[in-house]
Amino acid sequence: PPPPQPPQPPQPMEVDQPAGQAESESVRKQLRDELRAASAQKRLAPCERSEPWRLNTAQYDAASAPENVLVLVSAGPGTGKTETTVARVAFFLARGVPADKIRPITFTVVAAAELKARIKLKMPTIVGQPCVSTIHALSLALLGRSEIMSPPQAEDLALRALFEQQWPEERLRRLQAAFRAQVLHPPPLDGKDFGALRHLCKDMCAKAGLNTAGPQGDRVPDEAKCAYEQEWDCMEPLRAAARKVSHSDLSAAVSEFLGCSGPFDAYCRSGKGVEEAPPAVRRFVAMAREKGWLHINEVPLQALEKVRREGVPPAFQGAHYLLDEGQDTDAVQLELVLRLASHAGECRLTVVGDVDQAIYGFRGANARLMEALKAKQFDELAALLPRDDALPPSVRRAGGLVCVPLTEHHRSTTRLVCAYSLVRAKDPPLRSVHAGGLPAYRVRCESDALEVRLVLDQLRMWRDRGKAWGEMSVLALSSGHLTDFMDELKNAGIPYAERKDKDPPPPPHPPYGRVTLGTIHSVKGWECDVVCVVRLNYDSTKTDEAQPAFGWSIFCRSGGGDPALADKVQAQQLEKVRLLYTAMSRARRFLSLSCALPTGRNGGEPTRRWLPVLATLDETGGCVKSFAVRGEADISRAVAEVSADADAVAAEARDGAHPPPAGRSPPPMTLEQVESHNGAFAFGPAGAAGAAGAAGAAKAAGAAGEAASADEAGAAGALADDNGQF
Q1: Which residues on neighbouring strands pair with residue 343, listed in sequence order?
Q2: Given 82, 121, 141, 558, which is the most exposed site by the fewest CB atoms within 10 A?
C-alpha cells in the first residue's frame, strides 16, 4: 500500500467579492486618475488640454467642490456648463457615491436626454447610471404615479369649472328650451351663435340631467311651442350672452385659465393649499380628484405637499442633487429640491445656471431666487420661497454656500462677447478663447421687405463663403415675425426648417442642410455660426402689453406715476434684456440685429421704435457696427462691407494679429437713460465729445480689466495642486 501522506495544512477559504465590486473599484480608480490629470493641466490653454476631461481652473473647482454643501455654479453662455455638470457627476462617482444616489435635474426632456448621452460618452464603463430626470419626472416618482391628465381632459374640466356656477338650473332649462327651438324653428340667430348655444347646452346641461336632444319628427308639441313663445322675451339676455360666447371665446377662456400666468398656474406656483385658491380653481381640482386625474402643472406642488407632510422618502434620502438651469425654476420647484437635498444637517445640492439667461418669467420662473442666492441674501431668499423653513440652516452657516463663476468662453469670438456684454455686464467678465472676430451688426431698415431682402442676401453671402445652410439661423421674438422670412426663403429655393420649443438640437456633425428659423425661446442651449435676430421693434402707438415693448408705452404714457406699473414694466424690460442677451450669445462667428422702422407720414417720426435695450450698444469700442438700409443699393453696400470685414478677420487669423480682449463692460442703463437714448439712434460715428468721453471710459475699463486679469492670474498661480483630493 502507498505510504500515508502527511496531513496538508488547511487552505484559506476563498471569499468571492460581491458582484460588481471589483469593477466599481476599477472604474473609480480610473476616474480618480483622469481627474488628477485634469487637475494638473487645468491652467493650460484649451488647445493643450488632453482628453477626456479638458477642464479649466473654474470648471475643476466647481466639479471638485465639497459634496456636503450648497454649490452655486454661475455658468455664462458658452462656458462649458454641461461639461462641468458631467465632471461633477464623475467627482461623486470617484468618491464612491453610488450611481443611483446621484440625481441630476434638468429643465426639459431634451436636456435630460443630452445629459444622459454626455455622461455615457465620458464614462462608458461606469456601473449603473445616475438618475437623470426633469423636475416633473422627479415629482411623479415622489408621488408614485406615472400618468397625468391629457390636454382634452384638462380642457373639459376647465370648461365645466369656469361656467358651472354661471349657469344655474333655471337658466339651464331656459337654455334647453332655446336649443330645442333652434333645432325646430331657428330664430334669427346666425350659425355662430347657434353653435355657441348648442355647445353650452351640451356641456352645461349634462350635470343637471337635462335632455338636450330636440323632439323627433316634424310635428311639434303644442306645449313646446307655448313654452318657447312665452320664454322668448326672457331669453334675450341669454341670446346676447351666446353672441359673445362663441367657440373661439370659450377656447380662449379655457386657455387663459390653464395657460401661463392664469389662475390655475398661479395656484400651482404659489406653494399654498387649494383652499386658498379662487373658486374656479377649487372646482377644477375637486373634479380632477374625483376622477383620479392630475394636471402636469400641479405635479411639483403635490410632490412638495407630500414631502412637507411625510418627509423625504427613503429612496430619495442622502442623494446628491444637481439642478440644471437653476434660473428657470420657480419657488415651488426650488423648495422641493432644497427639502430633498437636506440630509443629516447637510445640503447636498449643486445649482448650475446663469441669471442673465432667465427668460421664462412668463411661465412663473423667478430670476430673483438665483440672484438672492448668488448675493447670499438669505433673508430675501427665504421670503421668496413659499415657506420660511424651506431654506436649510446649513446654507446660512459660514462655508455652507460655495459660489464658483465660469468665465472662460468657448463659443463666440472676443468682439461678439464684448457686444453682448454691453447688454448684460458680468462680474467677473467673460473672456473668449477665440480672439478677434467680426463685430455685431445693428441694421435699421426702412421697410419690412428691405429687412427680409437684407437677411436673405446675408445668408447667400455666407453660403458663398463656404458656410452650410445648417450653420445659419434666423431668430425673432415670436413665431409670427418669421412668416415673411419663410415665404421669401421658399421663393428663393433656400431650404429652411422651423424650430419648436421641444425640438431636440440638431447634431453638429454633419450640419443640417437647412436654415433654422425659430423664436429665441426655442433655441435656448443651441448655437450656430451665423445668427440673424430680426424684428427687434415695437409699435409706439399701441398700449397692448402682449407686444414686444411689454408695457413700455403704457409706462411712458402714465408719466411714471404708478409705482406698481413701474415695477411691473421694469421686470418685463429686464426679461427682454435677458432675452436679447440670450439671442446674441447663440452666435459663434456672425451676428446681425435688425428691424424695420418705416418713416411716418409726411416724413414724420416712425411709429415703430427700437427695443429700448438696443440703445445700450455703443460703437466706440469696435464691437458694434451700424448700418442704415433705405434701398437696394444700401443692402448691397452693407453685405459687401460685411464680406470685407470677414476677409480682414481671416487675414488677421493667418497673420496671428488679433486685438486684445476688451475690458469690463459698463453697467446696464436705467429706464430713464434708455428712454432718453431710444429714438436718438445715430448711424454715423459719434461726435467728438462723445467719442472722447467714450474713449476715456473704455480706457479706464480696459485698465480695470487688465488689473483684474493680473489679480486672477496671481491667484491662479498661487493655487496648489490638490493631490489626493479624490
Answers
A1: 346
A2: 121
